[in-house]
Amino acid sequence: MSNATSRATIRPEEAAHFGQLAADWWDPKGSSAMLHRLNPVRLAFLRGAIDAHWGTDSRGVKPLSGKRALDVGCGAGLLCEPLARLGAKVTGVDAAQENIAAAQTHAGGSGLTIDYRCGEIGGLGLNGFDLVTSLEVIEHVADKAAFLAALKGALAPGGLMVLSTPNRTPSSKLLMVEAAERFGMVPRGTHHWEDFITPDELRELLAPLGLAMGEPQGIAWSPIKGLHLSTDLSLNYIVCVTGGF
Prior knowledge:
Shape: globular
Mean pLDDT: 88
CATH superfamily: Vaccinia Virus protein VP39
Number of strands: 9
Order of helices and strands: HHHEHEHEEHEHHEEEE
CATH class: Alpha Beta
CATH architecture: 3-Layer(aba) Sandwich
Helix content: 25-40%
Low-confidence stretches: 1-6
């Protein structure tokens, strides 16, 4: 294991914060309500990326059949379960044992077989995944470069990585931190604006790893559309990453 992938990326205080939310992670009206609204938007992008990368039929129901998928920072499995339904053999990793327990319980109740692990992504010896996802996670890690190196280490040659994260802009500070937390749309302490990462910064972190970032798409909000994919990157963005082999 390289030094980059063995460095600690988990912040214990972040793991504790999200672990406290585990009990109602699957409640669409609970503390993770915003993630439930965000998930269909992320899945729409992801499905398009899967079809583009592997040339699968957009009408097919299991485009990931025969493929292995890894979701890092999986929480209680909000993304893992749709990936399993798309045909993938799924592994989910999270820093909070409470989230892993909630994920295992929910997957069992849904009749899905998902391999859930708790711990540092760089220390679990995971590799050879066709798809690696980490959505709304990198802004919470202690060492972004080491985290990305660990994600690369888990990716198979020719694989696809998908990342999403809030952008560090005045708009995101106002709406995602100050307004969202003040009005209870997300739990207090969820976001730390200074840890948000811009698309240019993310591209610069990926380049030394030999990873190429595609054109990011924004995840924006409007009163009419709600959360939706957009050319506006000011709040949040999602992007494909490839190469490095």
